[in-house]
Amino acid sequence: MTRSIQQLFDLKGKTALITGGSRGLGLQLAQALGEAGARIMISARKADELEVAVADLQAAGIDARWIAADCAREDDIHRLADETMQRMGEVDILVNNAGAAWGAPAEDHPIPAWDKVMNLNIRGYFILSQVIGKKSMIPRKSGRIINVASIAGLGGNPPEMTTIAYNTSKGAVINFTRALAAEWGKYSINVNAICPGFFPSKMTAGTLAAWGEENLKKHAPLQRLGDDEDLKGLCVLYASDAGKHITGQWLAVDGGVSCVTGG
């Protein structure tokens, strides 16, 4: 029989690993998956922030745990994958979210800063997807991979916003999503991307201070910034059987900014 919408979105019995999950967008995604019934493993570099985040998730009735790891380091990525599976079993949902940004004019952009952004924002996504895919998803012919990209990956920025490495890395995430979805569809692994617009966070605090909240809102047809609820629905759609026929796609969650800028 055809399942109800509540059954299609139900994630009970599933395990999700979310990188960059201690705060900001990553924590919002962890909350969404946990509220839908999934068991949660979050990861980030700072143990103290992870402890606070897991305490908040557990207080909300979510089965949540944490592992400190740096997803710019290959050895840490392998340790994160192995320890997650040792502690929680198979990984059903992988959310690649850990990221970095750097602002500098292209002609003066430090090469080490370029490498830092690329290592975390796209190389780390690939390595963790490869490890979880080979060890957990491909053998079972089942899995969901959700990559957090950005509307910055859809094109350039106004000249005064000098984040060429970030934009380039997020553009790479979008095409990585498409390529991996095409290759791993035969294993029944769905791979999709979320492209957030402007959400207030620690990473975007400098932009918010420089541009001002009201000025940023003016760039969005909906005249608002993203909030703590706005990524939840799309995340659970991608992760659940409600989205089982969706793969290789990206969707902007940006208040309409990309429809104005042509992303």
Could you walk me through the main structural features you see in this protein, from its secondary elements to its overall organization?
The protein is α/β, with parallel strands linked by helices. The protein has a single domain, classed as Rossmann fold (3-Layer(aba) Sandwich). The protein has a 7-stranded parallel beta sheet with strand order 3-2-1-4-5-6-7, sandwiched between helices. Strand 4, helix 5 and strand 5 form a beta-alpha-beta unit. Helix 2 packs across helix 9, helix 4 packs parallel to helix 5 and helix 5 packs parallel to helix 6. 44% of the residues are buried. The mean pLDDT is 94.
Q: How is this fold's topology laid out?
A:
Blueprint: H1 5-9, E1 15-19, H2 24-35, E2 39-44, H3 47-59, E3 64-68, H4 74-88, E4 93-96, H5 111-140, E5 143-148, H6 164-184, E6 189-196, H7 205-211, H8 213-218, H9 232-239, E7 250-253, H10 257-261
Parallel strand pairs: 1-2, 1-4, 2-3, 4-5, 5-6, 6-7
Helix pairs in contact: 2-9, 4-5, 5-6
- Provide the CATH topology: Rossmann fold
> Which strand order does the major sheet show?
3-2-1-4-5-6-7
> In percent, how helical is the residue content?
40-55%
Give a quick account of the main beta sheet: strands, pairing sense, barrel closure. 7 strands, parallel
* Number of E-type strands: 7
Query: Termini distance?
Result: 40 Å
Q: For this structure, what is the CATH homologous superfamily?
A: NAD(P)-binding Rossmann-like Domain
Report the principal-axis shape: globular
Catalogue the unreliable spans: none
Whole-number tally of structural domains:
1
Radius of gyration: 18 Å
Strand content: 5-15%
- Please count the helical segments: 10
CATH 2nd-level architecture? 3-Layer(aba) Sandwich
Question: Would you tell me the structural class of the helices and strands?
Answer: alpha/beta
Classified by CATH, the class is Alpha Beta
H and E string: HEHEHEHEHEHEHHHEH
Give the overall pLDDT as a whole number: 94
